Amino acid sequence: METKKSDIEVGKRIGGGRFSDVYMCRTLGHMNPSSSEYALKITEPEDELPPHNVKNELRLLRKLADAQDREDKENDTSLGKNVVRLIAFYQSPIEIGLVFPFYKSDLNGVIANNTKVRSAFNLQDGTITRKRENNFSSSQIIQIFKGLLRGLAFIHSQGVIHRDINPNNIMFESPHELEPVIIDFGISYMNPDNNGLEKPDSKITDIATGYYKAPELLLSVKNYSNKVDIWSVGVILMLISSKDFTTPYSQDSAHSDLALLASIFNTFGSPPDDWQEVKTSRSYSAMNTAFFRKIRKSSDDLLFKLKDLPQCVQTFNEMMVYESSCRLSASEALKRIDSDRLQNQ
Ligand SMILES: Nc1ncnc2c1ncn2[C@@H]1O[C@H](COP(=O)(O)OP(=O)(O)OP(=O)(O)O)[C@@H](O)[C@H]1O
C-alpha cells in the first residue's frame, strides 16, 4: 500500500481543510487500475494542531483498511463499504499523502440535488419569496440513515471514534447515488488511548463541527465515548428528514457552544436532573438554573418526513438521549430499523 509520490499524477485541487489540501489524482505504476480517478489528501504534520494528527489518521486508516480486506475475504455483509478505504499512501520528510477513491458529491450536494424550490407570490406587498422543499422520499432518507449507521457500526467495532460526523464528511459516488461513505479521520480517536496521544478519561473535547456536537462535549465531559458519533448522525437525520433541510437549532448555534446548548435544550427538552456524566461539570451546575424548563419537541416535527414510520422515530428518540451511556449504539439502531422492514416501504 505504501507508494512514492512520483507514482501519483496530481490534478486539480478539489477541497481541503485547515491543515490539508485534497486533489484529484491519477495513479501510475502498480496501483489498482480498475478506477482511474482518485483523491489525494496531502498534510504537513508540522503545521497541525491537536486534535488534528495525520500520522494518527494514517495508522487508523490502515487498521480500518485491514478490517475492510478481511470483510471482503469473508464475503461478509459489508459494513465497511460505508467507510472510505485507504488505497495507498506516501510519506516524505515534510508531508504525508493519502490516496482514496474519488467521490463526486458530499451530503450537501445530494441535498441540493433533492431540493425543490417553490416561488410564492405575496399579494400584500407584491414580493416573490422562494421556499426550499425537501424532495427526499422516506425510503431514500432511510437508505442514507442506514448507510451511516452501518459505517459507524464498522468504525466503532474497530475501537475508533470518528469525532467529526457532519455533511462535509459524508460522500457519495454521485448526487443521485444514495449510498453514503464516511470520510475524514483527521481528528479521530482510537481506543485505548489514541496511540498515546489522549488518555481515555481526558480526551480533547474541542471536536466535531457546529450543530453536530453532542451535548456532553459542550459541557467538557472528557471521558466521552463513541456515542458522540451517534448524536451527530441523529442531527443529520433531523436535517434530511425536515420539511426544508433545516434543523430546529438557531443560526448562532453553528458558531457558539452556548447557543448550541440552548438550542439542544429547546429541541430535546431540559436534561434530566440525574444526568450522571455531567454531575461534576462546573459549567453545568453553574448554568442549569439559568435555563427555563423546556419540553422536548414532538418527534413528528423533528422528523417531518418520517413521521409515519414509528419504529424509525422511536430509534431516533433512543439515539437522542442526554445520558450518552443510554444512547443506542449504531448496531442496536440498525437492528431496530431492519426489524421494521422499512426497506420495503
Ligand atoms: N475521497 C474524496 N473524494 C472527493 N472529495 C474528497 C475526498 N476526500 C476529501 N474530499 C474533499 O476534500 C474536503 C476535505 O477533506 P477532509 O475532510 O478529509 O480534510 P480535512 O483537512 O480534515 O478537512 P476539515 O478540516 O474541513 O475537516 C472534503 O470535505 C471533500 O470536499
UniProtKB/TrEMBL annotation:
Residues 8-342 form the Protein kinase domain. Keywords: ATP-binding, Nucleotide-binding. InterPro entries: Kinase-like_dom_sf (IPR011009), Prot_kinase_dom (IPR000719), Protein_kinase_ATP_BS (IPR017441). ATP binds at residue 41. Pfam families: Pkinase. It comes from the Eukaryota. This is Protein kinase domain-containing protein. It comes from Pichia angusta.
